[in-house]
Inverse folding.
């Protein structure tokens, strides 16, 4: 099917709903709200919800050109044969008609954060904080940090920087990577890179970090997954398949996949990781099978499945992907899922069960259930726990993994709803005064000493240890829209708007309710800025969520009762 050009899509949207367009002013691109359907402006949240109820979120789904492949996806642009395929905007928000002053400031800051290589924008710097004494590596382009920037640029109709970034990181992947005398796998993607300008020779060069310079020498397992996810977002947003189809992109995907699809000693389909291998890049007791990596792995597998060519090399991966997705969705939906009923079952578990008939397969000792959980777990609601491995369930809640589980449809529709129920029911704990807690609860005293190794940056309710990260706002917003509950996002955005600009776009907030600017938080942290913009643009035009969201695969096996998993 021929892909519509972005302009076609944008024009079509513009005639039906609100749209932000970018205009050039004083050399800085700004966004301007445009609207031609004024009646929507009068709608309040209740009306929006009524509209959503009338037009269930499945209306967001469109068959795409990859439909012949077995994993279909939520796609808003794919069905377009020159027309915009979404009949009516299900909701839009008033803000689009009167953009918040923060939006303009955020765009200025985002454009300022661009990094250029030989005159071409290739990414955004992690933080543009001149006041900070310690630069560390915040002057670099981080792969994970660039994702919200990339989405903001794509949503604003500026895909070039995203394409340049994807190609530049692919080149970096192609270089030999060594830590001391040890060579890393070919597929490894960098955590970050830096462009060095030589003003005398007038040359630009790049240095990359695969973990060999990072604090603690942590390997970024998430980078490769984000790269694949971003390639799909680019393809969805622009309709330009030629990038993903390039031999080097196909090879890049295969290299990333071969790192995580190789056979080994694993008894679980989840991916075994070291501590600090993702956004939480310090020791925080997330080694093993952290939810963040599992959810990103799942989403990357589905994304790759939709983009890999069915040639000899690609086909081999496709088969492996389908098998792994099936095994993973079963494993995660059954063993990582926790709700009131499940908690009650674990509370009553017998231990030391041998054989296939075991109910308590991982030999979780009920005494290891932490006290806080009994009060925290609402009657309605649930979430994917942080980690599951032998005799170890990390019951902590992690925001990124749960939002990605919703967006990738790793969570069933019921589980997705339950996660949103939990966020609403435990708003004070998980959102408080600044969206969103990276994890809950914080590790304190003895646990903090043992688990973090007495990390002074990760003291209780700070940074990765229960700190609140504005960047997570875009993920919460996307999940809220996908589940048809935009009022949750609206509430969170209101909180962010009360503080973020005034506080200088901090990297994170501290405290039980996220009230204080983080102890060592950078200011003008790019992903805090971009995360806000992405959240705003998705609320203005919910079709944007299609870039980063996937509907449930129809052929995916339903959740089975854990005690029956061996008997089928
Ligand atoms: C910190 C964060 C990490 C982020 C980096 C750059 O190391 O833990 O997630 O990518 O800063 O912002």
């Amino acid at each position: 099917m021929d892909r519509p050009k972005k302009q076609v899509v944008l024009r079509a949207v513009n005639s039906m709903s609100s749209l932000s367009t970018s205009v050039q002013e004083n050399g800085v691109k700004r966004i301007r709200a445009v609207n031609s359907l004024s009646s929507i402006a009068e709608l309040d949240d209740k009306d929006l919800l009524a509209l959503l109820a009338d037009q269930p979120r499945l209306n967001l789904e469109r068959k795409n050109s990859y439909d012949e492949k077995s994993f279909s996806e939520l796609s808003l642009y794919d069905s377009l044969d020159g027309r915009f395929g979404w009949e009516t905007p299900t909701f839009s928000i008033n803000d689009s008609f009167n953009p918040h002053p923060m939006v303009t400031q955020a765009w200025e800051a985002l454009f300022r954060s661009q990094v250029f290589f030989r005159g071409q924008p290739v990414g955004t710097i992690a933080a543009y904080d001149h006041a900070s004494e310690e630069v560390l590596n915040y002057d670099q382009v981080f792969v994970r940090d660039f994702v919200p920037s990339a989405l903001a640029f794509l949503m604003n109709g500026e895909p070039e920087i995203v394409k340049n970034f994807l190609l530049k990181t692919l080149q970096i992947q192609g270089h030999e990577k060594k830590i001391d005398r040890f060579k890393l796998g070919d597929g490894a993607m960098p955590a970050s890179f830096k462009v060095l300008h030589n003003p005398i020779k007038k040359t630009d060069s790049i240095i990359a970090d695969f973990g060999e310079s990072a604090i603690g020498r942590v390997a970024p397992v998430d980078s490769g997954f984000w790269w694949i996810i971003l390639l799909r977002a680019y393809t969805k947003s622009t309709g330009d398949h030629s990038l993903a189809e390039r031999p080097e992109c196909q090879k890049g995907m295969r290299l990333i996949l071969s790192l995580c699809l190789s056979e080994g000693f694993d008894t679980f389909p989840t991916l075994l990781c070291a501590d600090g291998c993702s956004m939480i890049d310090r020791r925080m007791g997330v080694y093993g099978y952290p939810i963040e990596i599992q959810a990103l792995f799942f989403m990357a597998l589905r994304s790759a499945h939709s983009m890999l060519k069915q040639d000899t090399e690609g086909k081999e991966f496709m088969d492996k992907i389908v098998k792994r997705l099936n095994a993973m969705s079963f494993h995660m939906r059954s063993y990582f899922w926790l709700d009131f009923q499940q908690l009650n079952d674990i509370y009553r578990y017998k231990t030391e069960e041998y054989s296939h008939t075991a109910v308590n397969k991982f030999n979780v000792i009920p005494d290891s259930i932490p006290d806080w959980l009994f009060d925290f777990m609402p009657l309605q609601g649930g979430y994917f726990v942080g980690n599951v491995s032998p005799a170890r369930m990390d019951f902590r809640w992690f925001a990124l993994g749960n939002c990605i589980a919703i967006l990738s449809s790793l969570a069933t529709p019921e589980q997705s709803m339950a996660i949103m129920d939990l966020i609403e029911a435990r708003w004070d704990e998980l959102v408080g005064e600044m969206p969103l807690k990276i994890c809950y609860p914080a590790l304190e005293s003895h646990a903090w000493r043992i688990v973090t190794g007495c990390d002074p940056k990760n003291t209780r309710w700070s940074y990765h240890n229960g700190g609140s990260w504005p960047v997570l706002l875009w993920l919460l917003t996307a999940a809220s829209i996908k589940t048809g509950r935009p009022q949750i996002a609206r509430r969170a955005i209101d909180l962010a708007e009360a503080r973020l600009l005034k506080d200088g776009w901090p990297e994170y907030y501290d405290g039980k309710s996220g009230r204080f600017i983080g102890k060592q938080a950078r200011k003008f942290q790019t992903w805090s800025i971009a995360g806000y913009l992405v959240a705003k643009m998705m609320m203005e035009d919910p079709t944007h969520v299609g870039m980063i969201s996937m509907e449930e695969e129809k052929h995916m096996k339903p959740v089975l009762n854990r005690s029956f998993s061996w008997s089928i």
Observations:
- The chain has 19 helices and 15 strands.
- The two ends are 40 Å apart (CA to CA).
- The mean pLDDT is 84.
- The longest strand covers residues 382-389.
